[in-house]
Amino acid sequence: MSNQAKLELDGKSYTLPVVIGTEDEKAVDVSALRADTGYITLDEGYGNTGACKSKITFIDGEKGILRYRGISIEELAEKSSFVETAYLIIYGHLPTSAELQKFSDLLTSNQNLHEDMKYHFEGFPSSSHPMAILSAMINAASCFYPDLMQGDRSHFDEHAARLISQVRTIAAFSYRKSVGKPIIYPKNGYKFTANFLHMLFSDPYDDYEIKPEVARALDLIFLLHADHEQNCSTSTVRMVASSQANLYASCSAGVCALWGPLHGGANQAVVEMLQQIHASGDDGSKFIAAAKDKASGKRLMGFGHRVYKNHDPRAKIIKKSCDEVLRSLKIDDPLLNIAVKLEEVALRDSYFVERKLYPNVDFYSGIIMRALGIPVEMFTVLFAIGRMPGWIANYKEIADDPKGRICRPRQVYVGQSLNSYVPMSTRK
Ligand code: CMC
To answer: How remote is the CA of residue 321 from the centroid of ligand 1, in Å?
Structure first.
């Protein structure tokens, strides 16, 4: 296989290096293209742009493969926990029992917000979307731990653990505020996900009973969301981190990017779509017809993916978990029946087949979260809790790279050519 690509431009011939990844992913290195030829590449939406080399996550979208640090998502879903997987993603290897214990201890000792941070919650209207609160509060953490801002990375492990642990505390506090209930502090002795459920649903006078199957289902959702290579939010984190902004600022930007309905916001959008279909009495067929009609402005939410042109492996695992959770909690959710019907119809419909549109991770995750009693506005927040290890690992990869440069794409300018300033009095 050639390790060079040839390019003809303006009658001249150029050679460009070819880079081949561990799993035979091939890229043409265009980093010297402009200097050599005066041309840049144009790739709107970055569908063909490799923005970095990374050792964290591998996806083969054609085959439906997802691996964190080389381990398949199916194996991790079956054998690991969110906390262990978070360690794997950030530090590059499965922890020994001593390493896992140390990491868990760090998560516990950093789970409480700085007491002064609590007052920030008072300033938000109770109708605030929790994603807005989450990004604001993560960024606010920069004010409380200024060593990071001065570029001191000696406490990186502690900051990483604090972020993973406190994003959960912030999420729970913002939920409690939105329903007018008192804040519940985290409790030592609870595991990561059980503690989150405790902070969400306990009351000062009554501890919430944590069912193991509920904690396990939520832990699995976090694990399945823990990283997904260079998606919109992770690329945002890397972009911000490349300017040497601190860890909290970079991850806060990731939360904002995740919020949109084409990305993490899709889990909320899926349930809202299913609720609308249910309320309208449609069995799903009318909605499918609308989703195929570009003029309708509708899409089948939870379907399609930029990278997966086959089943999203996370969706398969989530669907199985969804069936188990609903069975175990004895919940008969009509939205599940609608989702199953939509999937069946779409997978047989030539529009979806030709475009290789399959259910993605968000298609069934919302139905599980609903069954666990989590309000729909919190769904994307839960995605953010899960994605935090991936953002931190990507931040670390940037920060650890001695050859790292600020990310700064170019553009092809298509606006007005040189023009003159017109005084106000003569403007039409
Ligand atoms: N419903 C109907 N048509 C669709 C859908 C859909 N969900 N997704 C893509 N298409 C069509 C699209 O209209 C286009 O058709 P045509 O070729 O005729 O113009 C074709 O399929 C290719 O779509 P695209 O928009 O160019 O694909 P993309 O790679 O830019 O977008 C996506 C990927 C995930 C944003 C898109 O599939 C989508 O909007 N899906 C619904 C939202 C969703 O579920 N997002 C969650 C993604 S997974 C979790 C995450 O990463 O956050």
So the answer is: 25
Confidence tier at 327 by pLDDT (50, 70, 90): very high
With H, G, I as helix, E, B as strand and everything else as coil, classify residue 336: helix
Q: What percent of the chain has pLDDT over 90?
A: 91
Q: Whose CA is closest to 57, among 83, 17, 31, 25?
A: 25
Atom number, ligand 1, closest to the C-alpha of residue 305: 34
Helix (H) or strand (E) holding 14: strand 12-20
- Ligand 1 atom 29: residue of nearest CA: 306
303 alpha carbon to ligand 1 midpoint, in Å? 7
Per-residue pLDDT tens for 20-61? 999 999 999 999 999 999 999 999 999 999 999 999 999 999
Confidence of residue 283 (pLDDT cuts 50, 70, 90): confident
**pLDDT beyond 80 at 146:** no
Measured in residues, the chain has a length of 428
- What atom in ligand 1 is closest to the CA of residue 270? 44
Catalytic residue among 155, 305, 312, 323: 305
- Angle at which helix 379-399 crosses helix 362-371, to 10 degrees, equals 120
Instruction: Pick the most confident of 125-129, 320-324, 326-330, 382-386.
Output: 382-386
Spacing, Cα 357 to ligand 1 middle (Å):
8
Q: Does 305 participate in catalysis according to the annotation?
A: yes
**pLDDT for position 37:** 97
**Ligand 1 atom closest to 312 (CA):** 48
Catalytic residue among 219, 227, 312, 362: 362
Atom of ligand 1 nearest to the CA of 306: 29
Please say if 332 is a catalytic residue: no
Using DSSP's 3-state secondary structure scheme, residue 26 falls into: strand
Mean pLDDT across 230-253: 97
**Which domains does the chain show, CATH number per domain?**
4-50 (2.20.28), 73-264+384-400 (1.10.580.10), 266-371 (1.10.230.10)
Ligand 1, residues 57, 270, 299: which to mutate, most atoms within 8 A of Cβ? 299
What radius of gyration, in Å, describes the C-alpha atoms of the chain?
A: 23
* H helix or E strand, kind and range, residue 396: helix 379-399
Of the pLDDT bands very low, low, confident and very high (cuts 50, 70, 90), residue 126 is confident
